[in-house]
Design a protein that fits this description.
Elements: E1 6-11, H1 18-29, E2 32-34, E3 37-39, H2 44-51, E4 58-59, E5 63-65, H3 71-77, E6 95-98, H4 115-120, E7 124-129, H5 134-147, E8 152-158, H6 163-172, E9 177-181, H7 189-196
Parallel strand pairs: 1-6, 1-7, 2-4, 2-6, 3-5, 7-8, 8-9
The chain binds adenosine-5'-triphosphate, 7,8-diamino-nonanoic acid (DNN) and magnesium ion.
Residues 14, 39-40, 68-70, 100-102, 105 line the site of 7,8-diamino-nonanoic acid.
Subcellular location: Cytoplasm
Pathway: Cofactor biosynthesis; biotin biosynthesis; biotin from 7,8-diaminononanoate: step 1/2
Subunit structure: Homodimer.
Length: 201
Amino acid sequence: MITSKQFFVSAIGTDSGKTLISAILARHLNADYWKPIQAGDPRDSEEVARLTGNTLTIHPERYHLKLPASPHLAAKEEGITISLNDFELPSTGNLIVEGAGGLMVPLNDDDLVIDLPLKWNMPIILVCNIYLGSINHSLLSIEYLKNRNANVAGIIFNGPETRSTESIIEQKCPWPVLLRVRKIDNLSGQSIEHYASQVKF
Ligand SMILES: Nc1ncnc2c1ncn2[C@@H]1O[C@H](COP(=O)(O)OP(=O)(O)OP(=O)(O)O)[C@@H](O)[C@H]1O
Ligand SMILES: C[C@H](N)[C@H](N)CCCCCC(=O)O
Ligand SMILES: [Mg+2]
């Protein structure tokens, strides 16, 4: 029996590199890509298509909201209430699903981004980008994943090599580091290939 590999990519915050890392993971697994909720433009789906040379299947967003904001707010602006029941996982093999912002970003008054992978029992990959303040944001996210008893495949560091930051997060994190992505000067298919060959699973 062939088992598919499906992961939900979340992060310690927005603008953390989830889209870039989703492209790397999708390339590594030859997986489809799906961004269920896009708030604002440009669309992450277009960036993943560009970075992977239009070779992968990209599933259409369930919501493409105009306002570049938290989904609960962007939806409210358009008179929409997002419900967890609105989302149906694409029926496919390997799949990378990208969240919006971080784990606790609200979809509506009750549900959060993390409720999507929990509903699907989909392993989460947490992107920890590196900046002053990211130790706290990473450890809070890790504690919250534990608190929600989430199925977590591992974490990925994104940013300048900072051993002191990475080692304290690794010490306190029960899941493995799957990849370390450094600043890429010209974001291209080639850089995606380079990192895709380094993913540890
Ligand atoms: N390692 C890196 N090297 C160069 N640029 C990067 C790197 N990581 C992220 N970026 C750039 O930083 C910006 C934010 O990254 P990205 O769009 O992937 O964040 P995100 O987590 O997907 O945000 P969102 O929550 O909106 O989906 C983008 O312009 C991206 O190309
Ligand atoms: C618009 C942005 N690029 C993301 N798609 C949504 C980020 C929501 C962040 C909400 C928050 O944590 O304050
Ligand atoms: Mg993104």
